């Protein structure tokens, strides 16, 4: 601060000082009087009426109970509830009401059939909490136990029953990865900004939409102010703030299609994604095997958790968005689109497949050992001829293929609402240089052209790609939530389709591909004939993703190959062919054949979809037809 | 200006420093008792308060080292800065408990309505000092200081923070009465003021504020709403008896029954745990500090010093009196913190800066005119 000139100030003149002093004296008197007033008041409160207040403070202690808010429901697109709440009863211990627990806990342990030491440990663990905060001794007790405790209520001071709403999964484990589960908030989460208003002991969404839409679903806690006496018995209610229920989440899922997909997967490892091709809305998202959500209610045990971690079928992985697999022949859609659009081939140009192609000093085999003979564009896709696509891919070069794959939304996250989505890999020359510091080998382009090698995709990406190819070329962002409504029915938020733009490729080339894909299911020699439905025209593409190099399992019969070395089976599809409405993508891990392992699952979904649409009731899911010898295709 | 005169050191006001230290110690101990049960994330509140103390003490040192007469040239820039801060808080402030009071400075959330109290005191003291009148002030002379007070008053009442707004009013009235008024002026003001009360009641107060006043007049009427605070606070104070329940042993204060037990209702925790004896000690400490401040006012070397010291004293006195009377159920619940005791950095900074001005005036009472 620059030194400022001090204002010229004269000493105070005596006459004025005298006058001011008089006023200050008056002020002093007033101040002393107010001090006297306050002290008199203190005397009145603390001494004259002190005993009264002391008694009141003994008697009249306020207990504050938080009342959990019922969490919002989760419904499907038809308004069918999928997840609601049910009351859960916990036994809690309130320290402020009974300072020495030993006697009471002994009785309680008998009623709960619990070890005393377990209960005492829980009480000890909570000594850091404020005294009025109850400690949970046992969660989710049954009616019998509840009745027993209520009966002995008077001889169990300090023991209370707490009722909290907890999740009720009406459809069991359907869409379990997507909905996620609830658990007690962790100490680490408590320090995060987004959970600023939470307290320890609160339930919070840990995964899936339960986590993503937590702030809409959670509602607001109520509070109950109760007067309690010295023994902790409630005297009267002073004040009640009703809890405010959370908002309802309307998913885009159709619970019927979800059911069909889950049942058709039948616990095999894999994924099913069903998308509305004209909006990007997801009608079913199944990652199999499912999580058992009930295990997570009230916290999952360490043993159960370890079991999940060690399971070879990897149930903890959401395979729809986190499972990254080579797309195999499904990727030929990309290669075909690039080749036609770039003018590398004409639809009529043919190639000869003799069962293999020699390139450099290596021999690249076709899956059909005897070869396909002469194939044109349509045939190549219908019969999934590798040699045709080797040749086309070679002429395209890897970067052109990558350009089209990227425009179809592969190799990057789709932007779905869920956390921890994986983006997959679409290789290019630059990518390899960055990743491996090596030059791209021409031979590697051949593998990419048929969806092997470095290429990795997720089921969701392939489903979205299929939708974009058949809906006229628009790439939509996949969405899971239709709208959010308040408890009083008001709509708070609606989600409209989000277009990510147009894909590369002319309308003409898209039409050609679509036509070929219909052939895959419907023409002789097509790899997915098993999917055919009598009155709906379906189009699709099968794929097999190699898990190990053929050489290692060469000559083994399919049954003899150990499970973990078997190929993954893909099938991606759409229907009805004339004016596509939905796309269905199925992956069966180690299912060996797209047509036979994955195809029937898609077929079951279509069957149900059109039954629902046309109002023809059907029920049980068909079991996939067993394979006849001559249907063994790729 | 910054030339250090040996005499300054000789005149350090040890009495006031001692009184402040005693009250500060009481405040911190009480804060520890009322908040140690909080399962709060981050630094415990009493440690935060301690850092506010250290920060404010540094500001106090700075204030003491500069001659207070500088304020005569700085008063309007300070005033303008205060108005800007208040407007900023209204427009961009952080909303806490429905009121926009805070400006986030990163390390510190400033509540501009707190320093505004002190800046108003400085502004009024400068104005009345310059406006020498032999015969006393007329109504017209009062228009300017009334406007100077009215502007921050409206900005603060709009937040809404009626407690602080009223406090500005009390400070204005005290300082205006202190300088000479004409009898006619005084009479007119009294009549005008009294007739304004029903109008303010009807148009200016928000429903919840009216409710607070009616509840205060009859707390039993509404034991669950606003009356709850008053009843509970009285129970806490009353149940302290002669010697109190002991440090950290209060049941009322510890039981989370008062949402403001470490801020506005800090004294009820103290009274419950230390009883009549402890409460009287604290009240006496306070009032000793206030009376000492008046003593400083009367010994100041010039009229500006007298006015400034008197203003600071009236500010501290009104905060203390309103808060204590509220906690004891003598006044309706208005949000006025207890100086040096209630938790809160902005309030602490303001009051310590005010005490710094007092020490400043005291130290320079023998200096010649410059």
From TrEMBL, chain A:
Single Gene Ontology MF annotation: peptidoglycan L,D-transpeptidase activity
Chain segments annotated as transmembrane: 26-45
Region (Disordered): 614-634
The EC number(s) this enzyme carries: 3.4.16.4
Domain Penicillin-binding protein dimerisation: 67-236
Enzyme class: hydrolase
Compartments where found: Cell membrane; Membrane
GO biological process, one term: proteolysis
Gene encoding the protein: mrdA
GO CC field: plasma membrane
Domain of life the protein comes from: Bacteria
Domain Penicillin-binding protein transpeptidase intervals: 270-606
The protein's name: Penicillin-binding protein 2
Keyword annotations of the record: Carboxypeptidase, Cell inner membrane, Cell membrane, Cell shape, Cell wall biogenesis/degradation, Hydrolase, Membrane, Peptidoglycan synthesis, Protease, Transmembrane, Transmembrane helix
Region forming the signal peptide: none
Organism expressing this protein natively: Thiovibrio frasassiensis
Bilayer topology term: Single-pass membrane protein
From TrEMBL, chain B:
Keywords on record: Cell membrane, Cell shape, Cell wall biogenesis/degradation, Glycosyltransferase, Membrane, Peptidoglycan synthesis, Transferase, Transmembrane, Transmembrane helix
Family: Belongs to the SEDS family. MrdB/RodA subfamily.
Molecular-function GO term, any one: peptidoglycan glycosyltransferase activity
Substrates-to-products reaction catalysed: [GlcNAc-(1->4)-Mur2Ac(oyl-L-Ala-gamma-D-Glu-L-Lys-D-Ala-D-Ala)](n)-di-trans,octa-cis-undecaprenyl diphosphate + beta-D-GlcNAc-(1->4)-Mur2Ac(oyl-L-Ala-gamma-D-Glu-L-Lys-D-Ala-D-Ala)-di-trans,octa-cis-undecaprenyl diphosphate = [GlcNAc-(1->4)-Mur2Ac(oyl-L-Ala-gamma-D-Glu-L-Lys-D-Ala-D-Ala)](n+1)-di-trans,octa-cis-undecaprenyl diphosphate + di-trans,octa-cis-undecaprenyl diphosphate + H(+)
Leading EC class: transferase
Coiled coil ranges: none
Record has Ribonucleoprotein as a keyword: no
Transmembrane spans: 12-32, 52-71, 78-103, 137-156, 162-179, 186-204, 274-294, 306-334, 340-361
Pathway: Cell wall biogenesis; peptidoglycan biosynthesis
InterPro entries assigned to the protein according to its UniProt record, in alphabetical order: Cell_cycle_FtsW-rel_CS, FtsW/RodA, RodA/MrdB
One of the GO biological process terms: regulation of cell shape
GO cellular component labels: cell division site; plasma membrane
EC number(s) given by UniProt: 2.4.99.28
Gene: rodA
Membrane topology: Multi-pass membrane protein
Cellular compartment(s): Cell membrane; Membrane
Function noted in UniProt: Peptidoglycan polymerase that is essential for cell wall elongation.
Protein name, UniProt field: Peptidoglycan glycosyltransferase RodA
NCBIfam families: rodA_shape (TIGR02210)
């Amino acid at each position: 601060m620059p030194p400022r000139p001090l204002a010229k100030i004269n000493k105070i003149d005596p006459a004025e000082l005298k006058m001011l002093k008089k006023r200050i004296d008056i002020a002093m008197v007033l101040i002393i009087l107010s001090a006297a007033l306050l002290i008199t008041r203190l005397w009145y409160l603390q001494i004259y009426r002190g005993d009264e207040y002391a008694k009141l403070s003994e008697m009249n202690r306020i207990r504050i109970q938080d009342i959990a808010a019922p969490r919002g429901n989760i419904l499907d697109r038809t308004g069918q509830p999928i997840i609601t709440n049910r009351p859960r009863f916990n036994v809690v211990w309130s320290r402020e009401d009974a300072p020495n627990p030993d006697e009471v806990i002994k009785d309680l342990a008998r009623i709960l059939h619990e070890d005393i030491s377990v209960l005492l440990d829980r009480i000890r663990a909570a000594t850091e909490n404020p005294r009025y905060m109850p400690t949970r001794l046992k969660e989710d007790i049954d009616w019998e136990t509840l009745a027993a405790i209520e009966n002995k209520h008077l001889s169990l001071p300090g023991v209370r029953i707490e009722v909290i709403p907890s999740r009720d999964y009406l459809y069991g484990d359907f869409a379990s990865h997507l909905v996620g589960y609830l658990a007690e908030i962790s100490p680490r989460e408590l320090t995060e900004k987004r959970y600023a208003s939470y307290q320890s002991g609160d339930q919070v969404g840990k995964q899936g939409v339960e986590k993503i839409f937590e702030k809409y679903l959670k509602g607001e806690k109520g509070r109950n102010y109760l007067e309690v006496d010295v023994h902790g018995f409630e005297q009267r209610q002073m004040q009640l703030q009703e809890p405010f229920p959370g908002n309802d989440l309307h998913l885009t899922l159709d619970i019927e299609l979800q059911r069909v997909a889950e049942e058709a997967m039948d616990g095999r490892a894999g994924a099913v994604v069903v998308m509305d091709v004209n909006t990007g809305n997801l009608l079913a998202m199944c990652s199999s095997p499912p999580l058992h959500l009930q295990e997570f209610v009230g916290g999952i045990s360490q043993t159960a958790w370890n079991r999940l971690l060690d399971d070879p079928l990897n149930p903890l992985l959401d395979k729809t968005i986190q499972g990254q697999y080579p797309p195999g022949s499904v990727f030929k859609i990309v290669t075909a689109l690039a080749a036609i659009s770039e003018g590398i081939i004409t639809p009529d140009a043919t190639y000869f497949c003799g069962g293999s192609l020699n390139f450099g000093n290596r021999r690249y085999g076709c899956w059909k050992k005897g070869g396909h003979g002469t194939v044109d564009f349509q045939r190549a896709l219908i019969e999934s001829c590798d040699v045709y696509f080797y040749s086309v891919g070679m002429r395209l070069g890897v970067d052109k293929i990558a350009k089209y794959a990227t425009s179809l939304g592969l190799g990057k996250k789709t932007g779905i609402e869920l956390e921890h989505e994986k983006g997959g890999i679409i290789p290019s020359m630059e990518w390899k240089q960055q990743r491996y510091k090596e030059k791209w080998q021409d031979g590697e382009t051949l593998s990419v052209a048929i969806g092997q090698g470095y290429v990795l995709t997720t089921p969701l990406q392939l489903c979205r790609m299929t939708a974009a190819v058949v809906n006229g070329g628009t790439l939509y962002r996949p969405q899971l939530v239709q709208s959010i409504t308040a408890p009083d029915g008001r709509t708070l938020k609606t989600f409209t389709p989000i277009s990510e733009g147009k894909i590369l490729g002319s309308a003409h080339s898209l039409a050609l591909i679509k036509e070929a894909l219909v052939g895959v299911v419907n023409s002789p020699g097509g790899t997915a004939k098993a999917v055919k439905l009598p009155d709906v025209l379906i189009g699709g593409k099968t794929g097999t993703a190699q898990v190990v190099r053929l050489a290692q399992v060469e000559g083994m019969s399919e049954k003899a190959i150990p499970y973990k070395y078997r190929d993954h089976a893909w099938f991606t599809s759409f229907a009805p062919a004339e004016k596509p409405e939905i796309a269905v993508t199925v992956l069966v891990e180690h299912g060996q054949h797209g047509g036979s392992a994955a195809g029937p699952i898609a077929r079951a979904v279509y069957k149900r979809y059109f039954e629902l649409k046309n109002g023809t009731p059907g029920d049980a899911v068909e079991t996939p037809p067993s394979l006849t010898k001559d249907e063994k295709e790729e | 200006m910054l030339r250090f005169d040996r005499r300054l050191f000789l005149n350090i006001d040890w009495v006031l420093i001692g009184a402040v230290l005693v009250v500060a110690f009481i405040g911190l101990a009480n804060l520890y008792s009322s908040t140690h049960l909080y399962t709060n994330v981050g630094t415990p509140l009493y440690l935060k308060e301690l850092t506010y103390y250290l920060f404010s003490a540094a500001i106090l040192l700075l204030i003491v080292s500069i001659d207070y007469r500088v304020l005569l040239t700085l008063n309007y820039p300070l005033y303008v800065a205060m108005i800007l801060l208040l407007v900023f808080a209204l427009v961009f402030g952080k909303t806490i408990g429905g009121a926009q009071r805070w400006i986030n400075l990163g390390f510190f959330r400033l509540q501009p309505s707190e320093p505004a109290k002190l800046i108003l005191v400085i502004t009024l003291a400068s104005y009345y000092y310059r406006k020498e009148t032999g015969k006393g002030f007329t109504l017209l002379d009062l228009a300017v200081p009334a406007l100077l007070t009215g502007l921050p008053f409206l900005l603060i009442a709009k937040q809404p923070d009626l407690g602080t707004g009223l406090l500005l009013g009390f400070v204005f009235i005290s300082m205006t009465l202190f300088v000479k008024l004409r009898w006619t002026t005084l009479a007119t003001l009294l009549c005008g003021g009294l007739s304004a009360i029903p109008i303010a009641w009807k148009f200016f107060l928000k429903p919840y504020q009216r409710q607070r006043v009616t509840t205060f007049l009859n707390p039993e009427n509404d034991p669950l709403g606003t009356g709850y605070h008053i009843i509970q606070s009285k129970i806490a104070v009353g149940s302290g008896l002669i010697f109190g329940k002991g440090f950290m042993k209060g049941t009322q204060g510890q039981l989370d029954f008062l949402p403001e037990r470490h801020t506005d209702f800090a004294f009820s925790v103290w009274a419950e745990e230390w009883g009549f004896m402890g409460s009287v000690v604290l009240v006496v400490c306070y009032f000793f500090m206030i009376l000492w401040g008046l003593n400083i006012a009367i010994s100041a070397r010039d009229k500006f010093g007298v006015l400034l010291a008197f203003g600071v004293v009236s500010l501290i006195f009104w905060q203390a009196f309103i808060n204590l009377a509220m906690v004891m159920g003598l006044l309706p619940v208005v949000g006025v913190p207890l100086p040096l005791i209630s938790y809160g950095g902005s309030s602490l900074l303001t009051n310590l800066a005010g005490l710094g001005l007092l020490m400043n005036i005291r130290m320079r009472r023998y200096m010649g005119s410059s």
